[in-house]
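re: that complex we talked abt at group meeting.

here r the seqs, copy pasted straight from the sheet so there may be weird spacing, ignore it
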Amino acid sequence: MALGKEKQTLNMARRRFVFRTNLAVLIFVALYGGFTSIIAAPGIVLGALLVAATTSPLIWWAFEYKHYIQSLDEFQSLLTMQALAISAGTALLIGSFWGVAEQFLGAPHVNAALLLPVAVLVHAFVQSRLARRYE
Amino acid sequence: MKNMLRDLRSERGWSQQALAENLDVSRQTINALETGKYDPSIRLAFKIARLFGKTVEEIFSDEE
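got the structure back, here u go
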């Protein structure tokens, strides 16, 4: 039906975006965790290869994010950018708080490489809240 | 910013979805415009004006 077509297209684009970006972050976390537990002190060449292999899903993530925003209308794009700003700020806040807790409370060390997965989790929550507001 | 979008749409008997499709935006965008939660870009404002055969000033006013 014609009236439902736009909504279906938007929902499909959103589903594709959520699936692909979540998959990219999951692959990143799996590679990071896997390589860290297997290889302790790689040489320069192997180290560079590990950096390239581990971070390549993040490039895919960034590409999917850009592609998704370009597919949205101006208001939806604004909502998504708001969600990105809130999630990035929240992840940075959590990172700073955690760093202080590591310093003074002996909290377990968490690598800053995991900031993006934290931001992605916050982003999913914030975007769903923002989208629901205008349903 | 105030606008007459809901009135103009109702006059034509269009749903939010139908208007959204005419303007190539999402229904959520129409909802946000009609409830005054979002002010459109100049480009979208002109597109809306053209669709309804009016000027931008006839549809949008800068009253709060």
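couple things i noticed - The interface with chain A takes residues 15, 17-18, 20-21, 24-29, 31-33, 37-38, 40-41, 44 of chain B (CB under 8 Å). The beta strands of chain B are 2-3, 60-61.
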